[in-house]
Amino acid sequence: MEFNKTLRPGITQQYRGRFAPSPSGFLHFGSLIAALASYLDAKHNNGQWLVRIEDIDPPREKKGASAEILKTLDAYGLHWDEEVLYQSQQSALYQAVLAELAQQKSSYYCRCTRAQIKAIGGIYLGHCRDIEQPQNNSAIRVINRFGVSQYNDLIQGQVNCNAALAKEDFIVLRKDGLFAYQLAVVVDDIYQNISHVIRGCDLLEPTARQLSFYQTLQKLPPQHGHFPLAVTEKGFKLSKQNNAPEIDKSSPVPSLFSALTFLGQQPNDELLDASVDELLHWAISHWSISQVPKSQEIVL
Ligand code: GLU
Ligand code: ZN
User: Fold this and answer.
1) What's the sign of the alpha-carbon dihedral 114, 31, 38, 154?
2) Quick check: CB of 54 below 6 Å from ligand 1?
3) 269: CA distance to ligand 1 center in Å?
4) What kind of architecture, by CATH, is found in domain 16-90+97-104+185-299?
5) Cα 22 to averaged position of ligand 2 atoms, centre (Å)
6) Using a 6 Å cutoff on CB, does residue 226 contact ligand 1?
7) Can you give the residue ranges of every domain in the chain?
8) Best of 39, 153, 185, 194 for a ligand 1 pocket test (most atoms within 8 Å of beta carbon)
9) DSSP character for 290?
C-alpha cells in the first residue's frame, strides 16, 4: 500500500517533540509559551525538537510570517534540530492518505453547509455517508469509527471530551480544496516520528479526533500535554486573530522569563540578568512538567 510505504511506522523510543506554528501572524507571547514548553520538555528529556510551519491555509497566511517566526525563534535561542518542514510541501503525502482512506471506504464526500449542521444541533450526524455526492464543491469527511473521547494528558491528567463531538465524522479535505488541519497535523506528526506533542489547551478537544484518526490510520499516537492558555485582560485567548502583539526580538530574556513563570517553573530573579543561553540552560535542567499549572487565569 502506497500510504504505508510513505508513512514511517508510528512511535519511536526516542523523544521527538515539535513546535508547529501557523504563519497567520508573528510570534506573540502565547506562541512563545508553546515554543518554549515543547522545546524544554524535549531538551530536558534529551530529545530532538523540530519546527514545522503549518502553511496549509494560504488565505490566512500573513506575508513574511514564516521567515519572521524562524528569526524570532533563533533570537530566543530556540534552535531546532532538523530542517524545517513546510506543510505546503507535503501535498503529495496528504493526497496519498486521502486516496488510501477512499480506497478503504473510510471517507466520503459531503456537501452539507455550516448552516444545515447548525440547524440540526451543531453536530454532524453522518448525513452524507450513504449518499453519492459529486466530488466538486464537496468536503471529504473521514468516518470516525473509534470516537475516542477520553485520553491521558501529561499536564491535564484524564481529559474527557464532549462525546458527541468526539464521535463526529470530521473534515479532512475542505470544500475549498484545502487540506484540513486534522489531516495535516496527524499525517505530519506520524511522518516526523513525533513522540510528544506539547501545546496549548485550545487543542484539547481536537486531540480526541486526532487520536481516533491515528487508529483509523493504524498508527500509534504520540503523548500529549496541554498547557493553559495565556489570556488578555478581557479574558480573550492571546492569538494572532485578536492581534496579540508580536514579542520583542531584541530583548528575549524578559519574555522568556515571563513564559517560564507562566509555565510554573519559578526562575530566580537573578536570571533576569543572565544571557539567553544561560537562562535556557537553567530552564532545561530545572524543567518539570508536573509544575505546569492545569489552568491559569493569567492577565497579561
Ligand atoms: N498550527 C497550529 C496552531 O498554530 C498548532 C498545531 C499543533 O500544535 O498541533 O495553532
Ligand atoms: Zn454532509
Assistant:
1) negative
2) yes
3) 31
4) 3-Layer(aba) Sandwich (3.40)
5) 28
6) no
7) 16-90+97-104+185-299
8) 185
9) G
Question: Which of helix, strand or coil describes residue 77?
Answer: coil
The amino acid present at 4, given as its one-letter code, is: N
Distance 169 CA to ligand 2 centre (A): 10
State in Å: Cα 185 to ligand 2 middle: 23
pLDDT digits (tens, 9 = 90+) for 227-275: 999 876 656 666 666 666 788 889 999 999 999 999 999 999 999 999 9
List the alpha helices (DSSP H) in 79-179.
91-103, 114-119, 163-167
203 lines ligand 1 (CB under 6 A): yes
The string of pLDDT tens digits covering residues 25-76 is 999 999 999 999 999 999 999 999 999 999 999 999 999 999 999 999 999 9
Whole-prediction pTM value? 0.93
| Strand extents, DSSP E, 34-93 | 48-53, 85-86
Q: How far is CA 248 from CA 24, 33, 255, in A?
A: 18, 14, 8
Strand 157-160 and strand 107-110: the pairing is unpaired
